[in-house]
Write a structure and sequence with these properties.
By secondary structure, this protein is mainly alpha-helical. It contains 6 helices and no strands.
């Protein structure tokens, strides 16, 4: 139980602790770099999680997933706010939040059955594959932005 507590606390702190500086990091290093760094951390977390054999290594995985989540969550909110007119932003943000929390609810309800069906290693590899898709979309977005300039 002590090890589970440490792992959980590490992830929660890594998810919300960086929020105090993520905005500053975005303004200093750019939104795209923060988004790609967050996605990269999530990919590292999935790979470490799939093959971790000890608690300290698994804690590192949860640290990566927490910081990666924070960078992607805050960065995506900034990205969303820059893609719509001011009059639309509130409605779009509300719709985005509804959709996101619906998916989170479905994922939470299906987590135990997915774990039982696929196993821990395969679930992490599946998460890594979905992060690769997100990275490909981010790279394409950056490429399109550079072309538009």
């Amino acid at each position: 139980m002590t090890e589970i507590t440490i792992v959980t606390q590490t992830q929660v702190l890594a998810m919300f602790g960086p929020a105090f500086v993520t905005g500053h990091l975005i303004s200093r290093h750019g939104l795209n770099r923060i988004l790609l760094t967050g996605a990269g951390l999530m990919l590292i977390a999935a790979l470490i999680g799939a093959f971790a054999a000890s608690v300290p290594v698994y804690v590192l995985s949860r640290l990566c997933v927490g910081i990666g989540w924070n960078f992607l969550f805050v960065g995506s909110a900034v990205l969303l706010s820059t893609t719509h007119r001011p009059a639309e932003r509130g409605k779009v943000q509300g719709l985005n939040d509804q959709f996101m929390f619906l998916l989170v609810t479905i994922a939470c309800l299906g987590a135990a059955s997915a774990l039982k069906r696929f196993g821990w290693q395969n679930l992490n590899l599946l998460a890594g594959a979905s992060v690769l898709i997100a990275i490909a979309a981010l790279v394409r977005m950056v490429h399109c932005q550079q072309r538009a300039r």
